[in-house]
């Protein structure tokens, strides 16, 4: 202990406790998404007074790999090894900081793709990843590789958005009007997080950020990401067809364009088998598409606490909340040319338009959307996004920012997750001072 105090006194004495002059600390975070894994290597200025400051990491490099870890459900053997390119990338990037590796945390948080698996499959995959991570020279404990809960994923996105927008400051208590609500849309799940004007009755998530102790409303809808929603809609089309006398060849899907044949692919990888193979002819029909998408949302479920979004889920009023809609929401708005500072009405107009186009018109007018699968899904994605925001969450006249970056920094739950981890753990928020004497600080 005297040793520790001596070290701290030395540092604070020399630099008047200015965190800016302290050497960077580093860490890596893997976002194990349903569609692929991405590692973010980050750095941050540590603090001598973690209770008085909010520490924020910045990304210094990132790399992704596909498929996602959840695709190892039927054979977990390769799950850890599939992340090797990400680890090698990190070692190369951090080569000059080798002395810090043992203090550099390596996290993996998997998301909705893993939430959808059977528990035994999920644990086998995590065990395989942990076994691999234990062999690496970075700071790692088994609990650092896990599945994030939907609520955590949402809150981490909220932290990232609000930090980048300048809403999280040590001298201001974050409240309903000084923060922005976050809307995240992934492949398999969708998250809504905000601080309401009135108190939160359910689904409150407590949070410590520097001097602040706060609560946000956080809810995650598993299976309401765009891929899961597309599967769900396709299953409704198929079951409707089975109920009628239609032959399999004439199944029609209103959310795809005339001249396009849609063959839903129900799995996330080639390893798992598809339950059914059907082709559907697009009909370029917005009204039909909207009606189909609305059936995914159960608005009639009993609402046990007053104010519900859908499926009977409690949600405080969103009337005056400003929102930032990122990830796939921002991609969809961008693809459709909806302005970043938009309203729901703009997205609705764009959805109506894109859903009216034939395949040939779509190819011509949306040439800039280079990925053909995404181009063909524009109508479904736009209609789903509008329906989720409006019928689902009850958002109407609210200001919505559709964007995934702010001042060149990505709005991403992974950054928020790292920020959360650092601000909860003094071992990560404090300086190492001198790497070779760092054990002194590991109190
Ligand atoms: C699982 O994958 C590994 C590596 O890809 C392979 O060697 C093994 O044979 C597979 N096991 C099964 C049961 O398919
Ligand atoms: C919310 O925070 C802002 C900025 O700190 C402050 O001006 C405002 O009075 C606060 N509002 C409420 C309702 O506390
Ligand atoms: C860190 O500690 C080592 C060994 O105790 C010493 O050789 C080195 O000069 C120190 N580095 C700094 C920057 O103080």
From TrEMBL:
CDD domains: ASKHA_NBD_GDA1_CD39_NTPase (cd24003). The active site is at 153 (proton acceptor). It comes from the Eukaryota. PANTHER family: ADENOSINE/GUANOSINE DIPHOSPHATASE, GUANOSINE-DIPHOSPHATASE. It holds the Pfam family GDA1_CD39. It comes from Effrenium voratum. GO terms for molecular function: ATP binding; nucleoside diphosphate phosphatase activity. Belongs to the GDA1/CD39 NTPase family. InterPro entries: GDA1_CD39_NTPase. GO terms for cellular component: membrane. Residues 1-16 form the signal peptide. Keywords: ATP-binding, Hydrolase, Nucleotide-binding, Signal. GO terms for biological process: nucleoside diphosphate catabolic process. This is Uncharacterized protein. ATP binds at residues 187-191.
